[in-house]
């Protein structure tokens, strides 16, 4: 069974189509990247899968279940999302503890204290952070909390929207390692949006390159090692990201 | 002109008050800059941006800056009055900020803004101003300057906006350009264009450049010399081509933590911060 | 004492209680650094104490008439003098604190939550809901407060309860506007999206996540508005549409004293002072609260 299937997906904002005719199939346990520059529609696809961009047509299904137009509770336990901005994705007036217990409360799950403690350990946060507020945390710590929140309901599919682009490189390395470890341990499927090709090379198995709302190429991440891309846009993106060894003077 | 350094900085300190007393964000920074390209690299909170602002004496209150020496082309920057300093800013030292959206005036046309930058520093006839503006836009590789001068900032893309900022900063022909993360708001393909452009203009005009960035590889590609900053101090200073031979554990850690295009490592090495600092 | 402070300021609190106490302690401490806010808080404290302990503080009955001692100037026996019916003005001002506090508290309890909820719903859903709700709000806002209150009181009949209802009805639209504006700034933010993704219902998001973010600016606004509410209530009292005689309402007292303003100035002036001081107290406190609570003033990150 495929984790995520997108068929002929069109997404529009008002009258402008931002995504056109996208077909992707992500296998269970795979880590798949959507790569492109700003305005290419890559984040919009994630939003549509998550139910935050209602104006789409085509077919979206997650773990075999077709997606409806609205957010529903069953979907929440299968698929979660980590956002780009660790500063905007946490409620400024809620402590880490409240943020992590909230999903359990919504779904009426018990044993909250134990689960929160366990999850903090899983994302590598010390227990002393449990009652802190977001403004007392660094960017990397906040992103760990956001990942922990997404994992509280034990989803199998994670949507990652540039999870490290707002972080320093040393912190980025920590978060990428964490995401990789969690995928290994919990058998997660990742659909990750990024503009950073080296991150794809580290994190993902396959990638789809997007340009102006369309997928121009789907390639294995190992293509980044030798630059064996067929599409000219992908090649130029690869070169601009410092991919071609000749370019480094 | 060649043997006198463009900028001499000795023991620069910038501090901000907190409830626990003043905290220094730049702790005794010294360097000399000729007409060359210097890169300052560091992570957030390393004090790299504050260094850039301090050179222009733009550290906002309640922040405080002081230095033993801050000499630009023979002028003592610390001794200048605020008015003299204002004349110097833009005319002789320019700064490019991170995001063009916040640096351009939204209700003024691009042509008018660039002309304004020129007119505040030089007295020129109107026709000459116009030709200089068009020439400048052309040199930042804007294809149809006649059309672009009449546009408003929201009508141009991020990359074009940043090129316009560069045009605005370079039109008074400064001697020193400080670029603070000039491309981090831009897409990778545009990034290269903008940096190539800055690089070319700096070389052609024999200006000094201070490129401030968090991206080690980018700085290594576009600069001659690199200072690596951490927690307000320079931990490493080396020629750009020797960056991979860096000796300080922090620099080594930073270099190793960047994912590579040909990534085969199962796990990225993580900085052990306790190794060289108390935090 | 130091261990207590350290416990409160601990960066890594070990329980929910410690975290929330620590948070309140920090807010209080920041507020205490602002001298005007402290003055405001003291004035309000005095007002509250006066209202609670009025029977013990007041030397005379607020209603007891003594026609033999009409219109006496301030003296040791009558600190603020007596009015035209020989009642001790000081005692009446002290008892008046009760009425003022009642009006202020009831208006705040009725109109602030109402405005908060309406504004949050309007801003959160947007679209037609927003247009309709804000249309109604604008109708209320377009009319001067006092005149609208007058119209309501005229329709409902004079009396202190009706005055309170009228003031509450006229003051919620301003709060709704603020709550809506505040909600709009973060309705599309990622933490709200994250809650929706977790399966939270709209009701849960509004009450649990949107409202708490609006409350601090609301508290500030309500505190600042208190002065206006007191003045409106006094205005209604002055016009004879608020508290009815013999209730010692400050506005009504001024109205009665107006007849003697030239020869017996204290009759109207003393309750006037009370109004001004209490209004100032609310303003000072509101200003201080804004510095501490308003997230846009920042300084926290």
From TrEMBL, chain A:
It is a peripheral membrane protein. Gene3D superfamilies: P-loop containing nucleotide triphosphate hydrolases. Keywords: ATP-binding, Cell inner membrane, Cell membrane, Membrane, Nucleotide-binding, Translocase, Transport. It is found in: Cell inner membrane; Membrane. Residues 4-237 form the ABC transporter domain. It catalyses: glutathione(out) + ATP + H2O = glutathione(in) + ADP + phosphate + H(+). One of its GO terms (biological process) is transmembrane transport. One of its GO terms (cellular component) is plasma membrane. Its EC number is 7.4.2.10. It comes from the Bacteria. SMART domains: AAA. It is an enzyme of class 7 (translocase). GO terms for molecular function: ATP binding; ATP hydrolysis activity. Belongs to the ABC transporter superfamily. Glutathione importer (TC 3.A.1.5.11) family. Part of the ABC transporter complex GsiABCD involved in glutathione import. Responsible for energy coupling to the transport system. This is Glutathione import ATP-binding protein GsiA. It comes from Tritonibacter mobilis F1926.
UniProtKB/TrEMBL annotation, chain C:
Keywords: Cell membrane, Membrane, Peptide transport, Protein transport, Transmembrane, Transmembrane helix, Transport. The chain crosses the membrane at residues 36-58, 99-126, 146-170, 226-245, 265-286. It is a multi-pass membrane protein. The keyword Transport applies. It comes from the Bacteria. GO terms for biological process: peptide transport; protein transport; transmembrane transport. GO terms for cellular component: plasma membrane. The keyword Transmembrane applies. It is found in: Cell membrane. Residues 97-286 form the ABC transmembrane type-1 domain. It holds the Pfam family OppC_N. PANTHER family: D,D-DIPEPTIDE TRANSPORT SYSTEM PERMEASE PROTEIN DDPC-RELATED, OLIGOPEPTIDE TRANSPORT SYSTEM PERMEASE PROTEIN APPC. Belongs to the binding-protein-dependent transport system permease family. This is D-ala-D-ala transporter subunit. It comes from Tritonibacter mobilis F1926. The lineage of its organism: Bacteria, Pseudomonadati, Pseudomonadota, Alphaproteobacteria, Rhodobacterales.
């Amino acid at each position: 069974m495929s984790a995520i299937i997108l068929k002929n997906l069109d997404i529009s904002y008002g009258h402008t189509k931002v995504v056109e005719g996208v077909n992707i199939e992500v296998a269970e346990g795979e880590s798949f990247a959507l790569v492109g520059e700003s305005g290419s529609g890559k984040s919009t696809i994630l939003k549509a899968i998550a139910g935050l961009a209602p104006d789409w047509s085509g077919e979206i299904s997650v773990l075999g279940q077709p997606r409806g137009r609205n957010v529903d509770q069953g979907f929440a336990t299968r698929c979660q999302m980590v956002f780009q901005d660790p500063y905007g994705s946490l409620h400024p007036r809620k402590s880490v503890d409240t943020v992590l217990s909230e999903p359990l409360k919504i779904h009426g799950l018990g044993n909250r204290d134990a689960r929160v403690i366990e999850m903090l350990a899983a994302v590598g946060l010390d227990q002393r952070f449990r009652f802190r507020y977001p403004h007392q945390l660094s960017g990397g710590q906040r992103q760990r909390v956001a990942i922990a929140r997404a994992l509280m309901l034990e989803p199998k599919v994670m949507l990652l929207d540039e999870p490290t682009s707002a972080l320093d490189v040393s912190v980025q390395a920590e978060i990428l390692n964490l995401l990789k470890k969690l995928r290994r341990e919990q058998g997660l499927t990742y659909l990750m949006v990024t503009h950073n090709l080296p991150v794809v090379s580290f994190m993902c198995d396959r990638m789809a390159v997007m340009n102006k709302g369309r997928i121009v190429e789907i390639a294995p991440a190992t293509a980044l090692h030798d630059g064996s891309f067929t599409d000219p846009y992908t090649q130029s993106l690869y070169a601009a990201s410092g991919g071609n060894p000749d370019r480094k003077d | 002109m060649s043997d006198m350094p463009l900028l001499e900085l000795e023991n620069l300190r910038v501090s901000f008050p907190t409830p626990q007393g003043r905290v220094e964000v730049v702790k005794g920074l010294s360097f000399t800059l000729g007409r060359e390209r210097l890169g300052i690299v560091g992570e957030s909170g390393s004090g790299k941006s504050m260094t850039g602002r301090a050179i222009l004496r733009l550290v906002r209150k309640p922040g405080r800056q002081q230095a033993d020496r801050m000499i630009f082309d023979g002028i003592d920057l610390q001794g200048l009055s605020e008015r003299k300093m204002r004349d110097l800013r833009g005319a002789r030292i320019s700064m490019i900020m991170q995001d063009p959206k916040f640096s351009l005036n939204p209700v003024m046309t691009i042509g008018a803004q660039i002309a304004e930058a020129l007119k505040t520093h030089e007295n020129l006839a109107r026709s000459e101003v116009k030709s200089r503006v068009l020439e400048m836009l052309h040199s930042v590789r804007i294809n149809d300057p006649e059309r672009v001068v009449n546009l408003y900032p929201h009508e141009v893309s991020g990359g074009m906006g940043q090129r316009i900022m560069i045009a605005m900063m370079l039109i008074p022909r400064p001697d020193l350009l400080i670029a603070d993360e000039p491309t981090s708001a831009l897409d990778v393909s545009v990034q290269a264009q903008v940096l190539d452009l800055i690089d070319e203009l700096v070389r052609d005009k024999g200006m000094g450049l201070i490129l401030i960035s968090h991206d080690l590889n980018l700085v290594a590609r576009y600069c001659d010399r690199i200072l690596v900053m951490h927690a307000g101090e320079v931990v490493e200073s080396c020629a750009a081509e020797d960056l991979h031979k860096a000796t300080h554990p922090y620099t080594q850690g930073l270099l190793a933590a960047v994912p590579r295009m040909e990534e085969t490592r199962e796990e990225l090495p993580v900085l052990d911060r306790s190794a060289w600092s108390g935090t | 004492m130091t261990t207590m402070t350290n416990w409160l300021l601990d960066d890594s609190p070990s329980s929910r209680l410690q975290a929330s106490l620590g948070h309140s302690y920090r807010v209080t401490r920041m507020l205490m650094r602002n001298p005007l806010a402290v003055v405001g808080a003291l004035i309000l404290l005095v007002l509250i104490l006066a209202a609670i302990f009025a029977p013990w503080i007041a030397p005379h009955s607020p209603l007891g008439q003594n026609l033999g001692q009409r219109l006496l100037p301030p003296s040791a026996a009558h600190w603020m003098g007596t009015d035209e019916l020989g009642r001790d003005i000081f005692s009446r001002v002290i008892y008046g604190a009760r009425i003022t506090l009642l009006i202020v508290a009831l208006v705040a309890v009725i109109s602030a939550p109402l405005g908060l909820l309406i504004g949050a719903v309007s801003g959160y859903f947007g679209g037609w809901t927003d247009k309709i709700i804000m249309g109604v709000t604008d109708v209320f806002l377009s009319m001067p407060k006092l005149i609208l209150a007058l119209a309501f009181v005229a329709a409902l009949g004079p009396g202190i309860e009706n005055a309170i209802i009228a003031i509450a009805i006229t003051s919620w639209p301003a709060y709704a506007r603020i709550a809506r504006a505040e909600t709009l700034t973060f309705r599309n933010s990622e933490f709200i999206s994250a809650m929706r993704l977790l399966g939270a219902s709209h009701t849960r998001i509004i009450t649990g996540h949107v409202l708490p973010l609006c409350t601090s600016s609301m508290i500030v606004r309500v505190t600042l508005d208190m002065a206006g509410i007191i003045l409106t209530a006094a205005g209604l009292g002055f016009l004879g549409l608020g508290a009815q005689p013999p209730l010692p309402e400050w506005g009504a007292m001024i109205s009665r004293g107006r007849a003697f303003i030239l020869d017996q100035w204290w009759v109207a002036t003393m309750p006037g002072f009370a109004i001004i001081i209490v209004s100032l107290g609310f303003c000072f406190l509101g200003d201080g609260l804004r510095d501490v609570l308003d997230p846009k003033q920042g300084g926290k990150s």
